[in-house]
Amino acid sequence: MITKTTLEKAAKFVHNCKFIFSFKKNIFQKNIFSLLFCLITTLAFAQTKNVDSYLSALPSSDAIQVKHLLYDLQSAVYYLSDDRTVKIYGDNPTALYTDINSIPFLGSAAIQGNDIEIATIKIETSSDLSRTIDLTSFSGFGKLKYIYISTAIQTSEAVINNMIKNDTSKYVLIYNVSIGG
Q1: What are the residues whose beta carbons fall under 8 Å from the beta carbon of 174, sequence distance 6 or more?
Q2: Closest CA to 141 of 113, 108, 105
Q3: Which of 7, 77, 103, 164 could connect to 46 by a Cys-Cys bridge, CB 3.0–4.6 Å?
Q4: 3-state SS of the chain?
């Protein structure tokens, strides 16, 4: 998530490094600055959090609400790449379950997502880790707050962060790696 302090730090960093561009002979420094700036913006704009760490940092009442969305049975929409059909269970679904291969098709699917608050993305194979998660695909879900990435493949937070594209910090991005059970 981008916070105001993160943006302020990035602006200060750019301001403090302006002198690099004032010298014509500092091409090496300019390239390093450009690389650092890209890394900083990538890390600042796509930050997922481990679900356990995220829940433990929340106030109790907020944690209960998020745990309800994550773990309790509720009405839901399933849209998976197996058959790309929309399956709705219950009235006014608050959860969307999909896989990474279906994300590009969410906009064209006939999903009534007015009440969806959480989207769960399942990553099932190691080749899925090379795909991207374009967050603009979720723009049709007005009440969406959380995007939960679940995988049984060994991976890291950095790999998941690199998968995220077009992060506007509109959503809380959380993940869980659950291997073996």
Answers
A1: 48, 49, 50, 51, 54, 146, 147, 148, 149
A2: 113
A3: 164
A4: CCCHHHHHHHHHHHHHCHHHHHCCCCHHHHHHHHHHHHHHHHHHHCCCEEHHHHHHHCCHHHHHHHHHHHHCCCCEEEECCCCCCEEEECCCCCEEEEECCCHHHHHHCCCCCCCCCEEEEEECCHHHHHCCEEHHHHCCCCCCCEEEEEECCCCCHHHHHHHEECCCCCCEEEEEECCCC
pTM comes to 0.72
What φ, ψ does residue 115 adopt, rounded to 5°? -110, 5
Is the Cβ–Cβ distance between 123 and 100 less than 8 Å? Answer: yes
- Taking a C-beta distance cutoff of 8 angstroms, is the pair 122, 146 a contact? no
Longest alpha-carbon distance in the chain: 66
Q: Look at residue 41 in the predicted model and tell me its pLDDT.
A: 47
pLDDT computed for residue 20 by the predictor:
57
